Amino acid sequence: VPILDTAFFRRWLELAADAVHRESPRLTELDSPIGDADHGSNMDRGFTAAALAVRTDPPGTPGELLVSVGRTLVSSVGGASGPLYGTALRRAGKALGDTHEVTPPELGEALAAAVNAVRELGGAEPGDKTMVDALLPASHAYTGVLTEGGSAQQALAAAADAALAGAEATVPLLARKGRASYLGERSIGHQDPGATSSALLLACLRDASAR
Ligand code: ADP
Ligand code: MG
Ligand code: MG
Question: Where are the domains of the chain?
Fold first, then answer.
């Protein structure tokens, strides 16, 4: 059973910074036909800066860590994804309060707070071909597994699977928010870059719990 303490969230951040760096070319490639070909470099710059900030000035609680990551993303990533992910993580951190060990239901509440923050700030509905299409099913899957009596690790595995399925399911959708929406019908047939990075971040959360 994973302990959801500050070390767990630090593991997540290190895995996320590595994964985003490794997948940066692919995220940028996805952002080429339906965006401005910068999603990989945006995410790489943001998570590299966030990991550095946390190594330099280690936060004392999970909440403080997530707020720090959110703040760094807002200040270091231009474009839509910086404010959206930044606000999501800050809101998730605030939802955790000053606890040192997060309970599985509290992690579910933090995930829900993150999704709600993205939806409030960006105004995207499910099916609009955005990161919401990966984040919302992940949040629901997490809560569903816990409700059925599953562990946090099982719930995180289900959340990662749901996020990946959600990202893949953006391919046939028409984009209604962000740059991709400027393309109208021509946005159909491409996977959304932000939904893809959301799936990556949730896979890292699952992997952080498996150690
Ligand atoms: P930009 O489009 O400003 O270059 P990025 O390329 O870093 O920013 O991020 C693009 C991603 O941001 C999209 O693939 C989409 O998932 C997400 N996105 C854009 N606008 C919104 C929005 N209003 N609500 C939710 N997500 C959005
Ligand atoms: Mg872009
Ligand atoms: Mg851009």
Answer: 4-209
Quote the ipTM score: 0.99
Q: What is the value of pTM for the model shown?
A: 0.98
How far, in Å, from the CA of 41 to the mean position of ligand 3? 9
> Is residue 123 in contact with ligand 1, taking CB distance under 6 Å?
yes
**Fold category of 4-209 in CATH:** 1.25.40
Spell out a b/e string for 148-181, using b for 16 or more CB atoms within 10 Å of the CB, else e.
eebebebbbbbbbbbbbebbebbeebebbbbbbb
Q: How far is CA 110 from the centre of its chain?
A: 12
Does residue 194 have its Cβ closer than 6 Å to ligand 1? Answer: yes
Q: Is the dihedral of CA 138, 164, 88, 176 positive or negative?
A: negative
Which atom from ligand 1 is nearest to the alpha carbon of 34?
14
Q: Does position 78 have pLDDT exceeding 90, yes or no? A: no
